[in-house]
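Section: protein folds

Sequence with per-residue tokens
===
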Amino acid sequence: MLDIRTYDAQAGGNVLYKALAHPLAAEALAGLAAGIRAAGPVAVYDPEGMFAMLRALGPDLGVLEGVYVHDTLRVGQESAAGPARALTDLPESGAAVVLAATFDGARTGERIAHLMPPGAHFVALDALRLPDGLLTVRERYLDKLNFATNHAFFRDADGLSTRLVTANYWSRYGAAAVRLWLRLFDADGAVLATWEETVPGDEAAIVIDSRAVRARFGLKPFVGQLFVHAVGVAGHDVVKYALDTYGTDGNRSLSVTHDANAWPSDRYANLPAPDRGEDVVLWVQNSHAVPIPAGAMSLNRMGRETHVPIARAVGPYETVAIRVADCLPDLAWPAQIEFRSGRHVVRPRYEVTGGGRTRIAHLNVERADLRPDPGIRDLAPSLGRGYLLPFPILDPARFRTIVQPVPMAESQADLPLRLDCFDAAGRPTGQKFLGCLPRDHDLAQDLAELGVPGGHGELVYDFRDGGEADGWLHALVRFVARDGGHVAETSFGAHIFNTVMTYRGEPQSYSGPPPGLTTRLFLKGGNGLGDAFCCLIYPASNPWRTESRTVLSLHDAAGRTLAETGLRIACSGSAMVWPHMLFAADMLERAGQGGYVMIRDTTCRLFGYHGVMRASDGAFSLDHMFGF
């Protein structure tokens, strides 16, 4: 497993990780390491504890003489070269090179000049710094806004193309000159193209289409990954986007996934085993410039400790398709699979092929830091039903809706759950206790068995048969068209929704201190793939306002507001939203490619799922929405 620190719920993202993992920094580090290896033994001065991450993300430095620290409490602690030594011992090290693991080389070199071994050469990490033109906050290099980066699965091959869609939400926080630095890698990890794009201000749309990129650079068909670095941002260091995968040249495939998580994890979950007639591929994309050794990653049935190693090595930035059936040939849906990635990849994707179509979705980060919370069993009555995981129940006459609870923390041994269903008006339509499910369960509940109408369902904790909870409840939801068999699936987690009272940071989405929940959701346009739609759900752990006061505003690609309309959703109810039914045809035409709808509510927190439906062949996509 890579010795890197990436993200935790208390501290947030580790900026050093992003600074070292940036492709330009990785290139510079390779050159620096080559020079150090050629010079001879290296002593490392590690003033800020950076060296472990530097060593994990970089090539071999050659003979490592020792690691030196100035903090007496760190002396003797294990390091990459045995116990850490006192900085005062550096003059006797005999090193030919002293590497200071800091980006402030000039000042550090001056401060320890009197401690340098005779004839030793001093180097620091200044050569790894990004050019000033790629920095948002030049006066503070390890500022999180300097590394607003993310990865995207990107493909234009075999009748399938991809399209990244988002908007310049940074302009809302005062960013005036945002631009994107982009690098496209092919399946072998080679650089296909590096370029920049200027992002218009005032919440303008951002659309990067693989077909346009391929034409612009004269590329052959490719499967790989796109590295995105947003420069000049404000307010958010997270790059959020939706990613359409759509068929061309007669391919009828259509799916959508998203990302806002740019941090590698030890484990990922919600990888489904193949159903009858399906093939499931896990796309492993090395997010770093160091190779992944053969056997460093593995798959196992969720809840079982029999691990099947991924036998092949994966090169720097390489993209590899791992066929699930080759690793776990006896496993079939509704069994679940856990991916142990060793922190080598950022948000892996999986692709399901069946019936001549494919659908692509993402795995979710499995938390290593959570433990069961006894307080959830005894939540205050003012929190009502507590944690809810809402999801749409599409029209049962046209679709099957199937929900599968997924363990999403390493410590989750069981899932004590109930399913509550509601119609669009917020009236209860059905309920089922799912049991205290073991970690290796294979339950996939088809809502048709409950005979409930369209609307939405909510997974909630129910401890009647015991069990534990940590609040990190997740599920995979699969939607199957009855006519034509097209399938879409999505996954997300639970929150406490719309209560005046709070518990451990829940509910979220406050505008200022609680109470005062709000909603801001992004609904991308169909962009020529079909009719855009979303299902908006008004979940409530305890009764909140009787109705939402939702405003939907149509924006063109430049971010200009073209039209607005209002919507009222009943508490515990839902609404299907079709922009082509809400806004005049000429307004939608003016919105054009990249046009979108912002969904705003200052009275409650709504939860949404968005997608595209195509009438010509029944294809549709569906994933949960994100906000800015």
Summary: The two ends are 33 Å apart (CA to CA). The chain has a mean pLDDT of 96. The first strand starts at residue 7 and ends at 8.
